[in-house]
């Protein structure tokens, strides 16, 4: 029967540590992108707050204040929607990269496990054919279940992304319609 050698175990642990550091790096890259986005949003918000304050202080009557308020409403909703999209894109991209690494690692582990089972099956003593068949069947069922879960997770992610985009577009369109209705009134 084939057993793992010390060198194989060290190599496996080394590969796992490298994968962990790679995943950590991807996560930090995602956090870094979010921090950059938030800094840019904060800078822009400060400039816009100063401009809005100056504009509000220069208003001469209530009608002019109402017009100023309406002029700011639509861009604010669009900016909030754009910010949400950016956060979602960064998060989705980071998750996708992590998932690719995880899938690759799991596929490699699955392949090694299958090879180990095949080796054990070849060296199985006579009279254990039923047990061997059962083990092979269980491994095949586990592989199929894993693939089904992976496909379902990808479909759920795609549906969530489509729903997020639709919700964002609907919110922006509703704000635009409301702004147009107020201007017409």
Q: Which quaternary structure do these chains form?
A: single chain
- Ends distance: 85 Å
Q: What do the pLDDT scores average to?
A: 80
Order of helices and strands: HHH
Largest sheet: number of strands, sense, barrel closure: none
Compute the gyration radius: what is it?
A: 28 Å
Give the strand content. Answer: under 5%
| Structural class by secondary-structure content | mainly alpha
Can you tell me the overall shape? elongated
Percent helix among the residues?
A: over 70%
The tally of structural domains comes to: 1
How many separate helices? 3
Key traits:
185 residues, mainly alpha, 3 helices, 91% helix
Layout of SSEs?
Blueprint lengths: L5 H52 L4 H61 L6 H56 L1
Write structural notes for this entry.
With 185 residues, the protein is mainly alpha-helical. It has one domain. It is built from three helices and no strands. α1 packs antiparallel against α2 and α2 packs antiparallel against α3 (129-184). The mean pLDDT is 80.
Structure at a glance:
This protein is an all-alpha fold.
